[in-house]
Design goal:
The structure is a single chain. This protein has two domains: 15-274, Rossmann fold, CATH 3.40.50.720; 279-385, Rhodanese-like domain (Oxidized Rhodanese, domain 1), CATH 3.40.250.10. 36% of the residues lie in helices and 16% in strands. It has helices at residues 15-20, 22-25, 31-40, 52-62, 95-106, 124-129, 141-154, 181-184, 197-200, 206-223, 270-274, 279-285, 292-300, 313-318, 329-333, 355-366, 378-385, and strands at residues 42-46, 66-70, 111-115, 133-136, 158-164, 167-173, 232-237, 242-247, 289-290, 305-309, 325-326, 346-350, 373-375. Helix 5 (95-106) links the parallel strand 2 (66-70) and strand 3. Helix 4 (52-62) runs parallel beside helix 5, helix 4 packs across helix 10 and helix 12 (279-285) packs across helix 16 (355-366). The model has no long low-confidence stretch (mean pLDDT 94). The protein binds zinc ion (ZN). It comes from Planomonospora venezuelensis. In the N-terminal section; belongs to the HesA/MoeB/ThiF family.
Length: 393
C-alpha cells in the first residue's frame, strides 16, 4: 500500500539547499519535489535519548525544515554509551537543548524547536497539533500510550520504535490507514513484567538500527514514496542479524480507533493506566518501606537483619550494598527463594530503584514474613545518600 505524500512541497530550494541536498536530488524518487516536501515538513521527535539521537541527527541532515524535540531530562554520563547526539561536555545539560545544538551544527538551514518540558496530557495535544508527523523515541509505556492516543485523536501518523538488549521493533501507526498501538497492544504489560532498558540494558548501536528505520519511514511518509510500515511490525534481532516483518491488523474492536471507540479523549492519568507497581506490591510496601539512611543505621547498630538484593547477577557485579545477598526476583516469583530465607532475621529487600523489590516484598509477606521491609529507591538511593563514591548505572 503506497500513500500520498503527507506534505506539500515548499515553493523553492535555495542555491545552498540544492548544493547541500544534491545526493537526494539526483535520486529520481526523491528529486526536487521530494526535497521541497522535506523542507516544508514539521516533525516532532519525542525524546532525545537512545532512539531520538540518531533520529534527530538524520532528520536534520535530510533537511526536514522544522524539527521539534521534546525532552525534560538532562544528559547523564550513562546516556553517552548510545545517545550519540550528546557529548561529554553536555553532561548535566538539558537533553532538548543539547540535541538542538547538535542539530544546528549538522544543518543550520532548518528550524529547531526546543520543548524542554515533560510531555503531559495537558500539553501533548497542543504540541502535536503543530507537527505533521511524530517520531516516538520514548522508553516507557505510560508515555507511549499517551503518544498513541494523542496521535490518533489528532489524525497524525507516528513512527514508533522500541529497543531492549539486542532486540528492536518498529512500526508506523496511523489510524486513518491502519492499526494504532492499541490495536497491537490493547493492554499495557503487567507492572514489573517488562524490564526497561535502565533495568535490562541495551546494546548502544541497536538505537541506530531502529532509529534509522524510523527516519526512513518518516521520510517515506513525508514524501509519499515506497511502501510505508503501516500495518506491519518490523522485528530486528541483532544477534541473529535478522529483520522480519509481521502483519498487524487494525482491530475493529480497538477502544480508540475501532468501530465503537470508548476512548474518545486522552486518559486522565497514563501512569495509573500502566501502573508503576501492582496493587499487591503497593499494599505490601505500605508501612514496610525504609530509607537508605535507616538501613545504614540498622547495619551500623548490628541489627539482626538479612539484606537481599533481588536484581540480576550482572547488576550486582556493577554495584551492590555491602553485605547484601543476591537472590534474583525470578526466584521469588517461582517460589524457590522462600526456602533460603532465614526465619530468625528481619528480611530487607532491595533492587535498583524499588519496583522489583516491592513485587518481591508482596511474595515474602504472603509467605508469612510479616515484618519484612524493602528499601525505597533501591541501591540508587543508597548510593545517593550513603555512599556517593559508588558507581550508578
Ligand atoms: Zn487501534
Amino acid at each position: 500500500m503506497s500513500l500520498p505524500p503527507l506534505v506539500e512541497p515548499a515553493a523553492e530550494l535555495t542555491v545552498d539547499e540544492v548544493r547541500r541536498y544534491s545526493r537526494h536530488l539526483i535520486i529520481p524518487d526523491v528529486g526536487m519535489a521530494g526535497q521541497k516536501r522535506l523542507k516544508n515538513a514539521k516533525v516532532l521527535c519525542v525524546g532525545a535519548g537512545g532512539l531520538g539521537s540518531p533520529a534527530l541527527l538524520y532528520l536534520a541532515a535530510a533537511g526536514v525544515g522544522t524539527l521539534g524535540v521534546i525532552d525534560f531530562d538532562v544528559v547523564d554520563e550513562s546516556n553517552l554509551q548510545r545517545q550519540v547526539i550528546h557529548g561529554q561536555s553536555d553532561v548535566g545539560r538539558p537533553k532538548a537543548e543539547s540535541a538542538a545544538a547538535s542539530v544546528r551544527e549538522i544543518n543550520p538551514l532548518i528550524d529547531v524547536v526546543v520543548h524542554n518540558e515533560v510531555l503531559t496530557t495537558e500539553n501533548v495535544m497542543d504540541i502535536f497539533a503543530r507537527y505533521d508527523l511524530i517520531v516516538d523515541g520514548t522508553d516507557n509505556f505510560a508515555t507511549r500510550y499517551m503518544v498513541n492516543d494523542a496521535a490518533v485523536l489528532l489524525g497524525k501518523p507516528y513512527v514508533w520504535g522500541s529497543i531492549y538488549r539486542f532486540d528492536g521493533q518498529a512500526s508506523v501507526f496511523w489510524a486513518e490507514h491502519g492499526p494504532c498501538y492499541r490495536c497491537l497492544y490493547p493492554e499495557p504489560p503487567p507492572p514489573g513484567m517488562v524490564p526497561s532498558c535502565a533495568e535490562g540494558g541495551v546494546l548502544g548501536v541497536l538505537c541506530a538500527s531502529i532509529g534509522s528505520i524510523q527516519v526512513n519511514e518518516a521520510i517515506k511518509l513525508l514524501t509519499g514514496i515506497g511502501e510505508p510500515l503501516v500495518g506491519r511490525l518490523m522485528i530486528y534481532d541483532a544477534l541473529e542479524m535478522t529483520y522480519r516483518s509481521v502483519k498487524v491488523r487494525k482491530d475493529p474492536e480497538c477502544v480508540l480507533c475501532g468501530k465503537n471507540p470508548t476512548v474518545t479523549e486522552l486518559l486522565e492519568d497514563y501512569e495509573a493506566f500502566c501502573g508503576a507497581v501492582s496493587e499487591e506490591a503497593q499494599e505490601a510496601v505500605s508501612g514496610s518501606t525504609i530509607t537508605a539512611a535507616e538501613l545504614k543505621s540498622w547495619q551500623d547498630a548490628g541489627e539482626n537483619i538479612y539484606v537481599i538484593d533481588v536484581r540480576e547477577p550482572n547488576e550486582y557485579e556493577i554495584v551492590s550494598i555491602p553485605g547484601a545477598v543476591l537472590i534474583p526476583k525470578g526466584e521469588f516469583l517461582n517460589g524457590s527463594a522462600l526456602e533460603r530465607l532465614p526465619q530468625d532475621k528481619k528480611i530487607v529487600l532491595h533492587c535498583k530503584s524499588g519496583v522489583r523489590s516491592a513485587e518481591c516484598l508482596a511474595v515474602v509477606k504472603n509467605a508469612g514474613f510479616s515484618d519484612a521491609v524493602h528499601l525505597g529507591g533501591g541501591v540508587l538511593s543508597w548510593i545517593k545518600t550513603v555512599d556517593p563514591s559508588l558507581p550508578t548505572y
